[in-house]
Design a protein that fits this description.
heterotetramer; A: 246 residues; mainly alpha; 0% strand; flat; C: 230 residues; 80% helix
């Protein structure tokens, strides 16, 4: 177990392993995306209340739900950085923060576009949108702390700590915003579908899209992580050999 | 299977039951979102490798005695 | 070598608290400025929105909370800054006592100097903003419990950024979103007690937040200081 | 008392030192020499636990330092480039706080220490009115009253005048004679018996 763990922390090992996995992940991602998008756009029956805007859910829901995973991910990686000083964990914290900001931004944008017709306005202070908005702010905080600290070792630890603090905070914010929201304007949270009984035509494409977005998340993280490894390990022998063999 | 398609014509598909703007802008943003986060790291990798290669060549030429 | 008795942590805690209060007393600007800032920001709202008493009464609690939050955050900067620059922070890190208590002492002194005056003057400003009279006590008590939480949370952000030469607004970007739960509870307390909710419930929530942040925030600040001094 | 085994430190892809081993024993003065940027300050900060960007083992009386950090800090006095003197406080207030972290001392002892380092008459004036050398002396007054066995002094002579330099040198020698240990960086030639040197290149 310990050996496996320390091997996982080795950038070289990760670089080689991920190099072998990446093509398969990319292929799977495109397959899931293609089937999911075609199914969602063409075949899903329209919602009796929301009409064809239900197509928006098939991208909004996967992205929004995965965006909630970023702070826990960063907090776990941050803990590993602080406790075991594992290089790879810090790279995960570093690459996850901007990607998480993208995910959150897209979830916000798609949520508010969906709301144009349903709520009659681009933006309402709905519980979910509000807590996503603050999650976005906190992620931007981690990104800007990283770019402000020049010393990479201090930046690694500072961002790890901020991720842990941020993760606790996001959870508290989530609950307090929900509470605040129910007291101020009850019942405006959007629901996935009002006709759940409709069967597999509704949820199979959703599952496919969730899979596709998860794969996209993995692919993008792995790609940025590999870039970061190349830059940090540029003086090591294996990177020099890799460059020589180009 | 084809008769399960919800639209009878292509223009109807584009129209999205009157929600063309909402649906297509979200899917457009989705494409940008995916594309940016896949292409940017891809180009960055090329850039890094090019950079490392150039530096490697410069180093080799600068200190030939070390590499021999 | 003169060897005195080694210091118990409580004495080191009090000594640090006393030192920081003394510094604040010497640097009166640090005490007066947050207070004046609070006063001025609150006074700008009637000018920007409307002097209409009903409108002001509706937003009074929120305005006072946000002004208190901003005043606290702006004054946070001085929490570790001077100590970092003159090397006292290193001495603090090298003390044989748990850093948790040293940081807590500094936080308490900071709140006494910049938070407490704001809390004390809040009823006066609440009156000027035409907050319903029955809410004065609610506002005062929630600020009393809530502003220390803001200080404790802000201190984490300050500790993380103390080593930065030019920090600009990064401190605000990091710490402001963290204050959302306190802000929600504080302002809801004022609104909901007007509608007949019991104040004790909100005070209990704020009290729990205060206890949790007393227990955890100085630990995070201490860890952040060790990182920043590195 | 303090020993370092196989220390390795790199900063910005540059190895500052590797495979560094040394011991400091009671009664010893260790002068760390090396050119600018050779890692003298970094080494001292690592030994004090202010910097953890190193590999290797540092032990205090044979036991790893992180296992007994409070013990170690009870016996450590560190004076860095930034001497830890707050400018709005007076020398006596600074000294009172600085010492209170380690030991409970009477004000008379502190006053005496301040006049020994040549600050008689300045005890109650705020430090920003004092010169850099005088501020340095405030931190040196701590040496007189601190119970610490190990002194770690980073360039303590820079702002001092000749007499103060002589005085500090005597203090260091006396501390070693009394069974303490001193680690010091300076470009100055120390006239101290049982002085050993560690060259970082």
């Amino acid at each position: 177990m310990w050996l496996w763990f320390s091997k996982l922390g080795s950038p070289k090992w990760f670089y080689e392993l991920s190099g072998r996995w990446l093509p398969w992940l990319v292929a799977a991602m495109f397959a899931f995306l293609f089937v999911g998008v075609v199914w969602a756009l063409l075949f899903v029956p329209q919602d009796y209340q929301q009409g064809l805007t239900n197509r928006i859910f098939y991208v909004h829901v996967p992205v929004a739900s995965i965006s909630l995973a970023f702070f826990p991910l960063m907090a776990i990686a941050g803990t590993i950085t602080l406790v075991w000083k594992m290089k790879l964990a810090d790279i995960v914290v570093k690459t996850a923060a901007p990607l998480g900001a993208w995910f959150t931004a897209f979830a916000l944008a798609s949520g508010s576009i969906w709301g144009i017709d349903t709520w009659g306005t681009w933006w309402i202070w709905d519980g979910r949108l509000t807590s996503l908005l603050f999650q976005f702010f906190l992620l931007i905080g981690v990104v800007s702390l990283r770019s402000a600290l020049e010393d990479s070792d201090a930046a690694a630890k500072a961002c790890a700590l901020l991720s842990i603090v941020g993760c606790i905070n996001v959870v508290v914010i989530k609950y307090s915003v929900d509470w605040w929201n129910t007291l101020h304007q009850p019942g405006t949270d959007f629901v996935l579908s009002s006709n759940k009984a409709n069967g597999p035509d509704i949820w199979v494409p959703l599952v496919l899209m969730i899979g596709a977005v998860y794969l996209f998340f993995a692919v993008s993280m792995i790609m940025s992580t590999r870039n970061e490894i190349l830059e940090r390990e540029r003086r090591s022998q294996w990177v020099e050999e890799l460059v020589d063999n180009l | 299977m084809l008769n399960a398609i919800q639209f009878s014509s292509f223009s109807e598909f584009l129209n999205m039951g009157g929600y063309a703007f909402n649906v297509w802008s979200v899917y457009g943003l989705f494409t940008i979102f995916l594309g940016a986060n896949l292409l940017v790291p891809m180009f960055k990798k090329k850039q890094i490798l090019k950079d490392l290669k150039r530096r490697r060549v410069v180093n080799k030429n600068a200190r030939p005695e070390i590499n021999e | 070598m003169t060897v005195g008795n080694s210091t118990p942590t409580s004495a080191a805690f009090l000594s640090t608290l006393k030192r920081d209060l003394l510094i604040a007393y010497r640097r009166k600007n640090d005490v007066v400025n947050p207070f004046m800032f609070f006063f001025i920001v609150v006074s700008l709202f009637p000018i920007a929105i409307s002097p209409d008493a009903d409108k002001l009464g509706e937003i009074a609690a929120g305005v006072l909370w946000i002004a208190a939050l901003l005043a606290g955050m702006l004054s946070m900067d001085s929490l570790f800054r001077a100590d970092y620059e003159d090397g006292s922070l290193e001495q603090l890190l090298l003390s044989p006592h748990p850093l948790y208590f040293m940081v807590l002492a500094k936080n308490i002194s900071h709140w006494l100097v910049s938070g407490l005056p704001v809390v004390l003057v809040s009823p006066v400003l609440a009156y000027m903003l035409n907050l319903p009279a029955e809410s004065y006590m609610t506002l005062f008590l929630t600020l009393l419990l809530g502003t220390p939480v803001l200080s404790l949370l802000g201190s984490i952000g300050v500790a993380l950024t103390v080593g930065l030469g030019s920090r600009g607004l990064i401190l605000a970007v990091i710490t402001l979103p963290m204050n959302v739960p306190v802000l929600i509870t504080g302002t809801l307390a004022v609104q909901q007690t007007l509608n007949g909710a019991t104040l004790a419930f909100y005070l209990a929530i704020l009290g729990a937040m205060l206890l949790a942040s007393i227990a955890l925030a100085p630990l995070a600040s201490a860890a952040a200081l060790r990182i920043s001094v590195n | 008392m303090l020993s370092a085994a196989n220390l390795f430190c790199e900063r910005d892809d540059r190895v500052l030192f590797q495979g560094l081993n040394f011991d400091i024993e009671e009664g010893q003065v260790l002068q760390i020499v090396g050119s600018n940027g050779s890692g003298k300050t970094t080494l001292m900060r690592i030994l004090c636990g202010l910097n953890d960007g190193y590999k290797g083992m540092i032990s205090w009386y044979g036991e790893e330092i992180s296992e007994q950090i409070e013990n170690f800090y009870q016996s450590l006095l560190y004076i860095g480039h930034r001497v830890g003197v707050n400018k709005v406080l007076t020398p006596i207030e600074n000294l009172r706080w600085g010492c209170s972290l380690q030991a409970q001392l009477e004000d008379e002892q502190l006053m005496e220490a301040l006049s020994t380092v040549g600050l008689r008459g300045f005890e109650e004036s705020q430090c920003f009115t004092l010169s850099a050398g005088q501020q340095q002396r405030v931190s040196l007054a701590k040496l007189l009253v601190s119970p610490a066995k190990l002194w770690v002094l980073d360039e303590p002579f820079t702002t001092l005048d000749l007499r103060a330099v002589q005085h500090l040198e005597n203090l260091v020698a006396a501390h070693a004679d009394a069974g303490g240990a001193v680690m010091i960086t300076t470009h100055h030639d120390l006239k101290i018996t049982n002085l050993s040197k560690l060259d970082l290149g």
